[in-house]
Design goal:
Oligomer: homodimer
Number of helices of chain A: 14
Largest sheet of chain A: 7 strands, parallel
Radius of gyration of chain A: 22 Å
Number of strands of chain A: 7
Shape of chain A: globular
Strand order of the largest sheet of chain A: 3-2-4-1-5-6-7
Structural class of chain A: alpha/beta
CATH topology of the largest domain in chain A: Rossmann fold
């Protein structure tokens, strides 16, 4: 069945793509075959990650980028994992309706990603969805996410270029940047640049960047000012992305992405195996009862389950 | 060595606690023994999660809560994983200095958590740090984090009560709430309630909450208005936490927390084992080379490594 689905993805059948994404999102064993069938066709799409606080105008920017890239003849996919995004929420047709300017364009595929469970599930599902779009011949996959925290660092791991979008006036964002997100941005966008305080924000960013003394051949994140509602600056954003794409070794970033995906898959598969093939019915509940009663600690419980799964764990971890 | 460290934690020696947290944060096998030694002493601390967008005044609220709880005779721990928080960043002594009003109080322990690597590392490290504080006899552990995304959902999994803090005026937050965070809040705080638009935000929240038709015996998240800078409303927050604590079954939430920790530990341990005991030197790089060349897909690579680790995986996952 997944063989037929793979063919539909490669033929760029929208419903086939939608179904394939749902399949790989669920991470069942049934879809591993689909990933295998598609993987050889991937590696051509360029993944653009866009993050920033709520209200920074990311969705309007994405809309502008879609229009621009379509005009240039590229196919575009959007994976929206921003709960504040108009792209987000609802079913596939709903997604398309949220984006009326591109609703009838077969060269645009929009998909919202639901917030998911444990173990970096969201980043993993997004990576898998990007892989499906890649195999379908999508030139550019835009991943839109919200915030300035750990979730965004995870997203960076799967994107080829990371764009952080800020707006003048809040002030808090720069603090956040100083504290952690500075390292993950390849490009900064100061949106709503017609607002009071835009130049001040740019200057603050410049100052922060100058602290991260980049080497002479290192990429120095440019700061692009935009007014997404009018389209001002969109060309500069595209030019910055092109420059980064040319300057950066895609292989380095992709290696990180592959490494991340491999680790994530190892973890998910090991847990799936233990739940299905190691644990007896109801045993997981019994273990949780024992942990609740403090008769067992989660570390010992994990080691015992892994031993039963076949791992030859030493007794070292408790002795040192 | 960890045996002595466990004793120092239980004796509430601040440097011992700090070292123990660093130890469990690193997740090395060396500290599994420490977790085992401490685990029987845990289960008494109440974990309070506070999240919200940057600039919502979370740190000032936390400061107010510390003062109030200390006055009532409770010991308090703070785990700050908000990059915009004044609690965050720097070493342990640095953390204390950032909080001058509590710097000399032995009943307060403040710790910033660094943003960490893959696989939900931050939530896992925070859970482990909370466990150390719990074993040290800390009555209340406040976990402060920023944002409205996946990271916060992870935090909810480790807290006994989840508080979402908002401020009037932005508007975006309510959208975000509607889209996803509504489900994770046990209590809402509208901070800076002396600002224009506070009542409107409360009304919008009420309207959103009424859509989530709670059953007659279900908890309906209260909305508490505060002005953290003046301390107004702090008592109402504490009262709301007490009511939630009385109304909710701690065991349900804690079971979820234990389950989460067990899964996380299984994943981390399995990967650690594969890297140390299954892979030959340089082999991980070779696998990544093969994936980059599209000669191997990450799903097949993961299965092969798990088989070599001892798991009896069937061939089913590729066949369906």
């Amino acid at each position: 069945m997944t063989a037929g689905l793979a063919e539909r993805v490669i033929a760029r059948d929208p419903r086939g793509i939608a179904r394939a994404i749902s399949c790989v999102e669920d991470e069942g064993a049934a879809c591993a075959g689909l990933v295998r069938a598609l993987f050889g066709r991937t590696g051509r799409a360029y993944l653009i990650g866009i993050t920033g606080p709520p209200g920074a105008g990311k969705s309007t920017l994405v809309d502008r980028l879609i229009t621009r890239y379509r005009r240039d003849g590229f196919t575009v996919g959007v994976l929206a994992i921003d709960p504040t995004s108009p792209f987000s929420g609802g079913a596939v047709l709903g997604d398309r309706l949220r984006m009326p300017s591109h609703a009838t364009d077969a060269g645009v595929f929009i998909r919202s990603m639901a917030t998911r469970g444990h173990l970096g599930g969201l980043a993993r599902a997004t990576a898998a969805a990007a892989l499906v779009l890649d195999a379908a011949g999508t030139d550019l996959v835009i991943i839109e996410t919200v915030g300035v925290g750990q979730g965004e660092v995870d997203i960076v791991r799967i994107a080829d270029v990371s764009i952080v979008t800020l707006v003048p006036g809040a002030g808090d964002e720069v603090q956040a940047l100083k504290a952690g997100i500075m390292e993950i941005a390849d490009i900064f966008i100061v949106n709503k640049a017609d607002r009071e305080g835009s130049d001040r924000l740019v200057a603050a960013l410049e100052a922060s960047l100058s602290l991260h003394a980049a080497g002479p051949h290192e990429w120095r994140p440019p700061i692009v000012q935009t007014v997404a509602t009018s389209g001002l600056g969109t060309d500069d954003v595209v030019a910055a992305i092109d420059r980064f794409r040319a300057a950066s070794s895609a292989s380095g970033r992709r290696r990180l992405r592959n490494e991340y995906q491999l680790r994530e898959r190892l973890a998910a598969r090991a847990i799936e195996y233990i739940e299905r093939d190691v644990l007896a019915a109801g045993e997981f509940d019994t273990i949780l009862d024992q942990i609740a009663a403090r008769e067992l600690d989660p570390y010992s419980a994990a080691d015992e389950l892994l031993r039963r799964a076949g791992l030859k764990l030493g007794g070292d971890s408790g002795a040192t």
